Amino acid sequence: MKKFSKILIITIIIFAILAIIGFLYIKFMELPVIEVRHINLKNVQDGSYIGEYKTFMVKVVVKVDVINNEITSIEIIEHQCGLGKKAEKITKEIEKLQSLDVDIISGATISSKVILKAVEIALSEGKNRMSLIIKGVRSMGTLIVYATKYGCTEKCAVILSEKLTGEVDLYNLKTEKVLNLSQYDKVIIGGSIYMGRIQKEISDFCIKNLNLLKEKKIGLFICCMRGGDIAKAQLESSFPRELLYKAVAQEVFGGEFMFKKMSSIERFIVRIVAKLDKSFTVLDTSKDMSNVSDKSINRFAQRMNNVCLNE
Fold first, then answer.
1. Where are the chain's structural domains?
2. What is the pLDDT of residues 204-251, one digit of tens each?
3. Would you tell me how many other CB atoms lie within 10 Å of the CB of residue 123?
4. Residue 104: pLDDT above 90?
C-alpha cells in the first residue's frame, strides 16, 4: 500500500510539473515578437526623426538626431512602461555602438525591445528621406530577402550585404509589407532552421513569387548549427526545386544558439537534442554559441558578384 501511495504521489508531482511547464510555455508564446531591423546609417539623411511603437502595454516615442551618418542623441519623449523604466539606458548603448544590435536590459525585456523598435522606425524615416533626395533612375541592384527568429539570419544578411557590389537592399519578411521585385536583377533568399524547418515566411514567399523569381539571378542560404550532409539536406529541403536548380550560389552560413533569447522550454529541448545527436558538442546554455562561417559568406558573395548580368 505504501509503495502504491509513493507511486501515486510521484505521478501527481510529475503531472503538476508538466502542467506548470505547459502554462509557462503558453504565457511565453503570448509575449509579442518584436523584430528589430538593421539600419545602415550611411543611408540616413541628417536630421531629427520621431519614432513611435506600442505593444503589450508599453508605448515609446523617441526623437533621434543624426549628423554625418552618426546618431548624436536619442531622446525618449514618452515611455509608458510600468516597471520597465530602467530600459531607457539602452539608448546610451545605441549611441555608443552606433547600432541597434545591443543587449537588452535585464528585467526590462519588453521595454528594451519597444525602445529599439521606436528608434528603428525613426531611422527608417531618415532612410526614406535620403531615398527621396537621390535623383535619376535607380539602377537595378540586389535584394536580400530573409526571415529571422533570434537575429542570426539578419546578422548574416547584413554581413553579406556589405560584401556585395552595387546597391543592396535588405528586406525582413516578418516586418516589411511592401516589396517590388521588378526593381532587382539579383535576389538572395535566406532563413534559419528552427525545429527542422525554415521559416514559413520564406516558404510562402518562394511559392508566391516563384515565376518572377525564376527570371532573376538567385542566391540561397540558410543558417543552422548542423554541418556536412545534414546541413546540405536541410538547405535542399528549404527551397523549391526550381530555385535550387537556378541558384548561382547556395551556402550554409552556420548558426547560433542564442540561449539568452530562448525560453526555458527551448533551452531544455536544445539540451535533449544535443544529448541524442553526437555531432553537437557539450552545451553550456548559460553562454551563447556561434559557428557562423565568414568563409562561407565570402564564398557566397564572390559567386553573386561574379554573376554576368548580361547572360
1. 41-133, 141-255+291-305, 258-290
2. 999 989 888 988 999 999 898 777 788 888 899 999 988 998 899 999
3. 24
4. no
Decide if pLDDT at 9 tops 80: no
Q: Can you spell out the DSSP letters for 111-175?
A: HHHHHHHHHHHHHHHHHHHHHHH--SPPPPEEEEEEE-SSSHHHHHHHHHHTTSSS-EEEEETTT
The angle at the Cα of 244, spanning 240 to 249, to the nearest 5 degrees, equals: 140
Position of cell 552545451?
283
Residue 301 has phi, psi (to 5 degrees) of -60, -40
Say how far apart CA 167 and CA 161 lie, in whole Å.
9
- The three-state secondary structure class of 247 is coil
pLDDT above 90 (res 288): no
Residues 147 and 156: beta-carbon distance below 8 Å: no
Q: Report the alpha-carbon distance of residue 37 to residue 218 in Å, rounded.
A: 23
CATH fold label, 41-133: Sufe protein. Chain: A (3.90.1010)
Question: What type of residue sits at position 196?
Answer: G
25 Cβ contact partners less than 8 Å away, ≥ 6 residues apart? 263, 265
Share of the chain above pLDDT 90, in %: 22
| Of 53, 34, 180, residue with least CA distance to 123 | 53
Topology annotation, domain 141-255+291-305: Rossmann fold (3.40.50)
pTM higher than the cut 0.70: no
